[in-house]
Amino acid sequence: MRKWTNEFAGVQQVDILLFDEFSAHCLANTVEPMRAANTLAGRELYRWRFLSLTGARVVSSSGMEVTAHAQLTKCSGDMLAIMPSYNFQHHDSAQTRRALRAAATRYKEIAGFDTGPWLMAAAGLLDGRNATIHWDETDRLAEDFPEVSVQRVRSVQDGNRITCSGALAAFDLMIARIGEEHGQALRLEVAALFMSPESGGAAPETALARTRVVARAVALMQAHLEEPLPIPEIARLIGRPRKDLEARMKADLGATPATIYRRLRLIQARKLLLETDISVSEIAARTGYENASALTRAFKAEFATTPRTMRKAHA
Predict the structure, then answer these.
(1) Structural fold of domain 12-173
(2) Dihedral, 139, 141, 142, 145 alpha carbons, nearest 10
(3) Confidence class for position 295, pLDDT limits 50, 70, 90
(4) Tell me, what DSSP letter sits at residue 128?
(5) pLDDT of 5 above 50
(6) Coil/strand/helix, residue 79
(7) CA dihedral defined by 98, 105, 45, 132, rounded to 10 degrees?
């Protein structure tokens, strides 16, 4: 069994409800992490559809046309992400409110991205809940919907309601969900693919400080894959005691520094294996393993196959 993704998790259906003038940036930051997770896992973890209220095409704020896969009323799934972005109040109609209230009975989770939380609040889907929205609109949301506890953070999950403040926060939210659902190693690989720091999202200052420590440690690991540093040396370089680094990394990524470091090296080995034709011995040298045999043992323990077998299967 691969240790870096949950083989027993079912495929998740994520539907994205688009309105005219939606943000193409926010849409890409929502979909691309799921697409990358499917590719890197080698199997389908997520499916997604683009929806509109009527099933008609929608046009983004930048003029990109998207043909809806279906009408909202005909769909159900694991998560519905509501994405109006610009001119969102224009879309706050009785029809929208009815459609969203009905959708809440068909989806396990309802999410509002960017300005989507406004439409959720208008439909009564955030009553008595904690929520956020694009920070330009936090004050207005709090004034117009006093029954919603509005927080100026990047994302909030309250029960089966999720709210997110914008495009960059959407990316952080999606890779965090990938980590929670399919393992932190896959989250790291998705983040590395997009050259994203492991920001971990948002939150109070204490959490932000914690993630900075972890991000600095991960950056050091990534910079020293060929000649791995001892964990005590990484702790020294970031100015933290080893036990403190271990506690923070376990809290943030669910594993010890040594485990994360090994996974990063093996992720790089897998990338070199699939994207180049260099020998397994050379890959071992580039990822800090003494020889091909040592790499093969670690690789098989992590991915349940040998480097040569994986390369052959993807040839």
Answers:
(1) Rossmann fold (3.40.50)
(2) 160
(3) very high
(4) T
(5) no
(6) strand
(7) 60
CB atoms within 10 A of CB 131: 28
Q: Helices 257-275 and 242-253, interaxial angle, to 10°?
A: 60
Number of H helices, E strands in the chain: 13, 11
How do the residues of the chain divide into helix, strand and coil, expressed in percent and rounded to 5?
50, 15, 35
Query: Which residues lie closer than 8 Å to 14 by C-beta, 6 or more apart?
Result: 34, 46, 47, 48, 77, 78, 79, 81
CA-to-CA separations, 16 to 13, 19, 102, 107, 269, in angstroms, rounded: 10, 10, 15, 12, 35
The rounded distance, in Å, linking the Cα atoms of 171 and 31 is: 9
CA-to-CA dists, residue 256 to 188, 195, 240, 259, angstroms: 14, 22, 15, 5
- Stretch (H or E) spanning 279: none
Q: In this structure, are residues 225 and 265 in contact, taking their beta carbons and an 8 Å threshold?
A: yes
Q: Which two tokens stand for residue 157?
A: 């999950």
* pLDDT per position as a tens digit, 221-279: 989 999 999 999 999 999 999 999 999 988 888 789 999 999 899 988 988 998 899 99
Give the Å distances, CA to CA, from 291 to 258, 284, 309: 19, 6, 17
Rounded to two decimals, what is the model's pTM? 0.74
Q: Where does 204-315 sit in CATH, by number?
A: 1.10.10.60
Domain ranges of the chain: 12-173, 204-315
The tokens describing 114, both together, are 């960017």
